[in-house]
Here is the input.
Amino acid sequence: MHPNRNGLGIQLTLECMVEKTVVSVTPKGAAVTTMDSRSPFGAGYDFTDPDVLLKGIPVEEFAQLRATAPVWWNEQQESIFDDGGYWVITRHEDIKAISRNSDLWSTNAKGAVMRLPEGVTSEQLDLTKALLINHDAPEHTRLRKLVSRLFTPRSVGALEEKLARSAREIVGAAREKDSGNFVDDIAVSLPLLAIADLLGVPEADREKLFGWTNAIMNTDDPDFDSDPTMANAELMGYAYNMAEERRRSPADDIVTRLIQADIDGESLGDVEFAFFVILLAVAGNETTRNAMTHGMNAFFDHPDQWELFKRERPATAVEEIVRWATPVHCFQRTALDDVELGGVTIRKGQRAGLFYSSANYDEAVFDRPFDFDITRDPNPHLGFGGNGAHFCIGANLARMEIKLIFNEIADQIPDIAKLGEPQRLRSGWINGVKNLPVSYRG
Here is the structure.
């Protein structure tokens, strides 16, 4: 059974749609070759519906599309984008091709996030375009060059000793308990500490940082009832104050370096810095936490792999954990011109959903993709994005955190065991887990 889709076997049924290829018309009038104009998954089916991902990655549906209609029109009756729907891109090669072609595909036109909270206005959508993930060149190139200082091998390496100590303490505290929620006890803490350390957020403010990020990200889950707009404003205000303080009293830290001009006279303005803090706090915290949790659950469901990890600690394990977890279900791009892809015409202004959770199980790329294999090599997964200009800037930091936490689990609580199935996050684009009940003593 694939753990990201409850109740689904991995013997995928791909027949039945192959002979139903017809010509249909999208709401924008683009003639396309696709499957039967009726959705094969039922009326109103939407790959970004939070209730779809709540059940787990839709692996069977994705496999069917990869085999029969790898570029498929997903109709939407209503969305903030008011464009009738989007193209579902399921194949690894197509997602990479789009990700690498910034001349034809924009993140800024309609943003990268496919599913925004109910009630978000078009004006609020425009505000999100200040985030780095929603920029196009040349502005994206300038901003990424500036913030990449945070993630140089030297900068990330400088954190390793402190994060290793923190990982040891986090797992050590869990070891003192009989049982608990793996997410809260272990997975949450290290990513939050890493981001806080990078930015120099004092210990007293770190719980607030965590609360703000949860409120901003978990807008479709009824267990999180905080106001995301208020949380966003509070986090932005905190970042403004941080920048203002460093301007008054420069320090030997990364915040000071980001807001001070470099040798080319470039620096982050206060608004740019504030939006970068939001992106870093949200993306760096949530995604790594979910990779750790899905990874632990994968080890529970594949005990032979846990025994192998404890015994040999293969360097390839982290990449397989990220592939298997695929913390970001999807991002989108908007076509800047008419473009042919997968035998169909995507019209200028239409959205293409890059479904990494499909690409990472693409049979054309991965041998036995539904096997969790920590020795898999090569492993060209798209868990950090489809490469190109928007490849995850913090990938190396995330890899380090995952390695450190699993090494400590193997050393300190090797008999950790699952007490119940994961409780998934309700989200249209984050492949998240809220609760994974475990015994720390086996």
In short: The chain has a mean pLDDT of 87. DSSP finds 16 helices and 14 strands in the chain. The CA atoms of residues 416 and 441 lie 6 Å apart.
